[in-house]
Amino acid sequence: MTSAYQQLTRTFQRLARFGHLSAIAGWDMQTMMPPAGSQARGEALAELSVLQHQILTDSRMEAWLEAAQQEALNDVEQANLLEMRRAWQQAALLPAALVEAKSIAGSRCEHAWRQQRPANDWQGFAANLQEVVRLSREEAEIRAQAAGCSRYDALLDLYEPGMTSAQLDATFGDLLQWLPDLLERVVAKQAAEPVDMPLGPFPVAAQRQLGLQLMKLLGFDFNAGRLDVSAHPFCGGVPEDVRITTRYNENEFVSAMMGVIHETGHACYEQNLPKTWRGQPVALARSTAIHESQSLFFEMQLARSAPFLQHILPLVSAQMGEQPALTPGNFVRLNQRVKRGFIRVDADEVSYPLHVILRYEIERALIGGDIEVEDIPALWDEKMQRYLGLDTQGNYRDGCMQDIHWTDGAFGYFPTYTLGAMYAAQLFQAVRRALPQLDKQIAAGELQPIFDWLSQNIWRHGSRFPTAQLIAQASGEDLNPQHFRRHLEQRYL
Amino acid sequence: MTSAYQQLTRTFQRLARFGHLSAIAGWDMQTMMPPAGSQARGEALAELSVLQHQILTDSRMEAWLEAAQQEALNDVEQANLLEMRRAWQQAALLPAALVEAKSIAGSRCEHAWRQQRPANDWQGFAANLQEVVRLSREEAEIRAQAAGCSRYDALLDLYEPGMTSAQLDATFGDLLQWLPDLLERVVAKQAAEPVDMPLGPFPVAAQRQLGLQLMKLLGFDFNAGRLDVSAHPFCGGVPEDVRITTRYNENEFVSAMMGVIHETGHACYEQNLPKTWRGQPVALARSTAIHESQSLFFEMQLARSAPFLQHILPLVSAQMGEQPALTPGNFVRLNQRVKRGFIRVDADEVSYPLHVILRYEIERALIGGDIEVEDIPALWDEKMQRYLGLDTQGNYRDGCMQDIHWTDGAFGYFPTYTLGAMYAAQLFQAVRRALPQLDKQIAAGELQPIFDWLSQNIWRHGSRFPTAQLIAQASGEDLNPQHFRRHLEQRYL
Ligand SMILES: [Zn+2]
Ligand SMILES: [Zn+2]
């Protein structure tokens, strides 16, 4: 007889297979597809997503989930069942009409935003965003009722299961105590340390070659993945075949180099997820925040450290040509430059959390119903002034219209960037305790012990443990922003 | 109320969307996928193919097909309904167990063949092939009963609907009357006309550039397609986004050049299929043989003609460097060389049909039960001797083990190559009648009138007409091998 749990594993394996096709067709759309394929691809992917939703919300699913809880399951199976229930609930809670309305409103808002942002057209954008917010509140209300939590917490849980706005308030409140002042001091200090900018052009072929060499150094398995080009860099594909992308600018190579390193962090996590449970939810990455912790571990903790930068400088010089900017001291300063700016995605690791906290405060109030869309610009201006000392009045395009997230109703996503940065710092300290010769090893390019540690403590667990437990097991304590503070102080002061 | 015909069009649109994903994931597997992705990709595509089969054999399908025949349908809709019924019948006739057994036996036979062919291991191969033949006969028997025809004709119909072995016997019989003798004379004539071989190396980048230029000349729409590399060249993707491939050898550029032109013929057919009926069976290419007629029209009729070769020689010289072999006379001789050989895929257009007829005669007898697998080598040797004057005794690897088709049970496919060649010759003569200045136009690179004619007479019709009608409308007569004969005589004697 087939147990309910077996019915579920079969169903989720089927879903994983369709997810595989969706991931590859989605990657192709961003990297390979010629323009005329766009409409047919969109329709094909939408058809697949309808099918995936049908399978996940099949009428037998609830009974299987109930019955499986009575079956004899080992620890991993129980963790898998928990993830199955999460996936089912996420899909099944919302009425189909709301899902469709949200998808249409999101597409419309995003599509129009692509023109409205360059045109600085806040009024036009606000009209579409209102509809997205209205539907996101509806979604949040339904999820909140089911989970017995606040609206915003219900959305947050989609990206970082178990996280609450109470914990974020505490953690981000801690950061706000010391980060603006730290930023001030770092900027003042660096004002006295001029940086030579590398002189291009830097041919795409050389940049790609350097990217591939760095991926190799960082343990990327080319037997199970690729590097390509797309307008917006991402890490896609499936754990068996991870596809990362970057974009090249021949005038400047550091962005693509660090972008490749960042995506390689995401990729190594994917490539080293547990193989035995493949196709099951428990084998998937833990959460958006843990994913980002791995990319930021690679980029911020490891790759922007002086020992790592000194180790790779010969590779960089070989591809880009020796020049005054590519001396050890200047190369480190170049990659550790801190600068207040309007744009989140261009921000360094010191100012980045302030961009995130600003958005978190606004979106939490927006979903909670404390503010409306028309209140956003004034709040944005005020917070940018307070946290970053910048004037954004009237500059919507580089202010509250700069991100894609809200256009699609992805409220609750922003905090994961800074959670990831804090997890990364905390994990790196744990690695440092485990490897007393860490800096020497990094300077010598002996990175395998680091990857072994990450594999042992994070990668191989997939979604087996809740985030809090995963972090506590790996680092010996709960999320603690003091590790992030210490990291910033030691690197920048 | 939704009519039965509307139910059907919805179902087939859904199938087309899933087919889109299958085509792109299949293309990716051949061109982009790293090795470790192979198993997961195979499983994902198999899951999709199970789904497609389920949709196509849905229990309501037969009733819809019956009911739609009573509904008021226009000509195109009626043609579409006919194609729907064909597709349904192809999928629904066979018991699921047979489909699965055939798929397993085919995979096993093909997989082992990849080792057995280089090892010249006929005995090992024969054991697997017997099982494939047994299951193919079973399939043929079921299809033959339903269609009221012979077993072999039932399989032939899968690749060239409406074609029969009676017509093939007549047509191929005609060819056998004059082709071996013609081949003899051409070989003798060319013995007195030495050819200079181009001296390489020919860098891949230059070969790719030439390929792209020729695709452009031949009307390929790069807004709706791509050129990539794969081990076995093919034309894949979907009409909105056609993906052709080639492979490069730096010692020799003509094969890749002609390969690209061949696949461009397939691609232009796909890109110019009717847009109004997109997603419906009637909008698809007519048949395997008509598809091949378009690639052979491009490659054999057009591109190996002296005016075309003279027109492209400057492009070729610009990429490959001027050299004695790239003078007008030699370049034509090089591309019109006829040579008896063991290998079908390397054959010129004069000897190619003899390779096909040999296979046709063997596979027809095999499916009919007149011979068994162990009889194949002796028959192969005898026919190779008779048709091509070559001794293949004991050389299975370059004899009856050289092709992949039988390993997968694709009996009935081979004749479409030569049907395609004959259709191509017949259509080219029709173009010549329509365009009295044809050779001058080709020599001047004015090819648009040819594409317009093909679009008007073949491409835009999709599967609206049966092949025989399509050919008769386009050329004014039924399939007539004399056009092929005249073409060969005029070019080679
Ligand atoms: Zn990231
Ligand atoms: Zn072909």
What share of residues are in beta strands of chain A? under 5%
Number of strands of chain A: 3
CA distance, first residue to last residue of chain A: 65 Å
Unreliable sequence segments of chain A: none
Radius of gyration of chain A: 23 Å
Return the average pLDDT of chain A rounded to an integer: 96
Q: SSE order of chain A in H/E notation?
A: HHHHHHHHHEEEHHHHHHHHHHH
Give, in spatial order, the strands making up the sheet with the most strands of chain A. 1-3-2
Largest interface by Cβ-Cβ < 8 Å: A-B, 35 and 35 residues
Helix content of chain A: 55-70%
Q: What are the SSEs and their pairings?
A:
2 copies of one chain form a homodimer.
Chain A: H1 4-31, H2 38-56, H3 61-68, H4 75-92, H5 96-116, H6 122-147, H7 151-159, H8 165-191, H9 204-217, E1 225-229, E2 235-238, E3 241-246, H10 254-271, H11 288-303, H12 306-320, H13 328-335, H14 352-368, H15 376-388, H16 415-434, H17 438-443, H18 448-457, H19 467-475, H20 481-492
Helix pairs in contact in A: 1-2, 1-3, 3-4, 5-6, 6-7, 8-14, 8-20, 9-10, 9-12, 10-11, 11-16, 12-13, 14-15, 14-16, 16-20
Binding site for Zn(2+) (chains A, B): 262, 266, 292
Keywords (chains A, B): Carboxypeptidase, Hydrolase, Metal-binding, Metalloprotease, Protease, Zinc
Family (chains A, B): Belongs to the peptidase M32 family.
